[in-house]
Amino acid sequence: MTENDPSGQNAEQARQAGAQPDATGLGGHATPHGGAQQAHSSEQQYNPWSPQAQTQTQQAPPPEQPAPGPYTQGHHIPGQQPPYTQPGPSVYTVPQQRQASKSTSGKLLAGVAAIALVVGGVAGGTVGFLTADSSGGGSVNALDAPKPAQQTGNLPAGSVESVAQKLSPSVVELQVSGRSGAGEGSGFVLSTDGYVLTNNHVVEVAAAGGQIQAVFQDGKKGTATVVGRDPTTDIAVVKVSGVSGLTPVELGRSDDLRVGQPVVAIGSPFELAGTVTSGIVSALNRPVSAGGGGDQTTVMSAVQTDAAINPGNSGGPLANMAGQVIGINSAIYSPKSSQGQGGESGGNVGIGFAIPIDQARRTADDIINTGQATQTFIGARVQTAPTGGAQLGEISPGSPAEKAGLKSGDVVTKLDDRTIPNADALVAEIRTRAPNDKVKFTLGGDKVVEVTLGGQPVTPN
Hints:
Elements: H1 11-16, H2 29-33, H3 51-58, E1 116-117, H4 160-167, E2 171-178, E3 181-189, E4 195-198, H5 200-203, E5 211-215, E6 221-230, E7 235-241, E8 250-251, E9 262-267, E10 275-290, E11 298-305, E12 317-319, E13 324-332, E14 352-356, H6 357-370, E15 374-377, E16 380-384, E17 390-395, H7 400-403, E18 411-415, E19 418-419, H8 423-432, E20 438-443, E21 447-452, E22 454-457
Domain PDZ: 367-447
Protein name: Serine protease
Region (Disordered): 1-99
């Protein structure tokens, strides 16, 4: 077991459990190349108004050419795994996970669709940056405010327009560069003194001496520095200096979301800062594993949405119709059939994933207060059981799992009232909880064991 793994697994075992190699070579999340990776020139993108494009559109196919069929190369064939790729230029493909074999131990996840972290392309654009409050007043921090009241209405109030007007001034484009590449993503303001919440994969390339510039909606610009980051949850906090008058977002809650509930996403897809899209909550508690390896594989119990999310949306807010942030847009599902030329992956196909804000605010609070995130763990290796559920492997001495009486070979089928279909679901559920939380594991069919979760600091690679 490795100390930072909530389940105690390592990278080698995760690979042995069935992770497929990266189809495009662009990397993933913690193994990937972060949010700001290899830059792609916008000149390589298709221009529908170019003379060549105009000529192409005027050349109709021969009359005898049959209409295109419903399938394209790479379409899914029943009984086979569909090919998955990363969305868009400068996005990082996450290896597809396969179901764990019976003989493999230490598997982090099986049977989960390959997920692509959505960071943008070449750094650029002309919007504003943000920085610390120079008014001389005290800091106002959204993380200190209590959760809003539980939703009770049958229909959400507000409109997409009102949400955009409320949130857009607080959304920032982050242009990132480092020794290994450059790119851009999104973030949103937590406090008047310049704290901004974003994804780890957006800023990790700049964590070792790189540069981050923040571009704000009203044209303000500032330099940002990394306060702390957590690859295991794909959350990071940066601090912007040189800009005053920042407007913090209002944080909502993610424990009362409903499938079908309208939501709005705001960010900088393909360097188009301030882009607003809308959709619904498509699913909840979706176990998603995105990139990385071993202890620092990103695993989240995600909010799934069909709001359009593309490269550059990473780190931006997903909001309810009251304009409250309920998630951080982080990953998309992008099959290989939507790949562009040159191995570049396609964009939105209507399946995006956001980190629930309840989990994000706890991690962000740890980072701001201590400079370091705290990871929740049980101290046991885990793999997907052949008949379903998460099978425990080696138990670390003195760990929460050992103290609770859990044994190697135990199969966890539920955590509290949440069904656990595989190893990834167990890891995701553990990471959504806080250290010292007491949870109930259902083993097999009926045995219930109470476990007090542990906590340990995360040291990013």
